[in-house]
Amino acid sequence: MPQVPFDDRGLAYGDGIFETVLMRAGKPVLWPYHYARLARGCARLNIPLPSHEQLQEAWQDKPTSELEVLKLILTRGSGGRGYALPDVVAPRLLSRRTPFVVAPERWQQGVSVRICQLRLGYQPLLAGIKHLNRLENVLARQEWQDSAIAEGLLADADGNVIEATSMNVFWQQAGELFTPCLARCGVAGTLRAALLDQGVVRETTLPLNALSNVERLWVGNSVQGIWPVSVLINESGSVLQSWPQATHDPLQTIGHRLLGYLSSPSQAGT
Amino acid sequence: MPQVPFDDRGLAYGDGIFETVLMRAGKPVLWPYHYARLARGCARLNIPLPSHEQLQEAWQDKPTSELEVLKLILTRGSGGRGYALPDVVAPRLLSRRTPFVVAPERWQQGVSVRICQLRLGYQPLLAGIKHLNRLENVLARQEWQDSAIAEGLLADADGNVIEATSMNVFWQQAGELFTPCLARCGVAGTLRAALLDQGVVRETTLPLNALSNVERLWVGNSVQGIWPVSVLINESGSVLQSWPQATHDPLQTIGHRLLGYLSSPSQAGT
């Protein structure tokens, strides 16, 4: 396993970014979106962007299984006096591939999601990018231990829904599909980016107190795909809303096509 | 130099805390305050607190110089699936001692400080502790390159002064000494904690637009001590306010006594 030294700024300050990429038969899925987000993160933090070629080295070895997860970490490297940058920045690029861990099959038909008490703070300079300062997500994920709950739902300080602990959020209202605007906090996922790009979803605002009125709710990311939410649990553990299993799930179909998950039952005949 | 593996959560998420401790003749200065802050950080993040004995191993070797800086990093250790904690948490404690790097001698008489454009976000769950999610400080420190500027001044989203990039802030108003309240953002320094403990300063709020009215302004931490601010520069680089050099600086005297800096000229005869 790769290592970083004590003075690496990724360790010292979370001064870096990462990507978690689904690998199918040794090839990265949605790679242009991952690379675009890396580029945005590097621009925002002022870290030199590695070339496509440098990044491609991370998947040169033969895959050990059909589906793998590639994690890339790019730190600003070592050095500097305190927070000040070193005179010469030498970023450190690390990668690791592990077999894909399958989620419970029934989650494809619907998951339980719990609203977290933690409220995301606003930092527009860091919003959207996948930086290494993830303590809010770590704290939010500690709010429940029940393994039947798939994800926690995170709202901002004004009580607007932003994301799930490790996924983005989507909902249907008056037949249209939406996802939260992430200008002030949250991570802009690559599956979300692809869905926005294709005009499948658009950005808007969803207050927590409007959640029980949405026609459908989903969580999703570029590794697991799209899960419909069947049960929404509030901060104190009570069921706030539930949605029946849909016979037809167009968002999941599109999402799973984007990721190459074609064998999912919900996509049959679409 | 110690290393951490790729899957260490300190690297992956900034899931940990750190301390920077002044070592005088091989002994940590203000240690009870550092240990208290470590304990608060561990409690807040739910990381098992190392014992005094485990921590003391960091300064068992003979010192290489009279003044050193000890940096301790405590991460939650390896593992877990995504943000979820591993079944067994095995924290990783790392330390490194380096010689103290002396700041320009004239900074004891007064420093230039620049107001940063970045506004600190609010996250009461993380405020005060010295966690590893420090991208706000890293970004703020990139706002200037002029080595004559000692520190950047950071305000919160409401425009209240919170801290300096790597120091706390103190000011005098109507003869009394104050420091910002850090309930929603900022790092609660150990020198600041000692000054609060002794009743030398008390917490209140200082809007940016009231800065030019304060009688005196200081920045300080437990390694460098207390520096009076002589010139305050605004976000666009213009001088906002300047203060004459004081013949007598009681805050610096108390601060430097706490750190064992007794030979500083400003402390003569006090």
UniProtKB/TrEMBL annotation, chains A, B:
Top-level EC class as recorded in UniProt: lyase
Pathway: Cofactor biosynthesis; tetrahydrofolate biosynthesis; 4-aminobenzoate from chorismate: step 2/2
Catalytic activity: 4-amino-4-deoxychorismate = 4-aminobenzoate + pyruvate + H(+)
Molecular functions (GO terms): 4-amino-4-deoxychorismate lyase activity; pyridoxal phosphate binding
Biological processes, Gene Ontology terms: 4-aminobenzoate biosynthetic process; folic acid biosynthetic process
Record EC number: 4.1.3.38
Keywords recorded for this protein, A-Z: Folate biosynthesis, Lyase, Pyridoxal phosphate
Co-factor requirement: pyridoxal 5'-phosphate
InterPro entries linked to this entry: Aminodeoxychorismate_lyase_IV, Aminotrans_IV, Aminotransferase-like, BCAT-like_C, BCAT-like_N, Class-IV_PLP-Dep_Aminotrnsfr
Pfam families, A to Z: Aminotran_4
GO cellular component, one term: cytosol
Similarity field: Belongs to the class-IV pyridoxal-phosphate-dependent aminotransferase family.
Assembly and interaction partners: Homodimer.
Name this protein carries in UniProt: Aminodeoxychorismate lyase
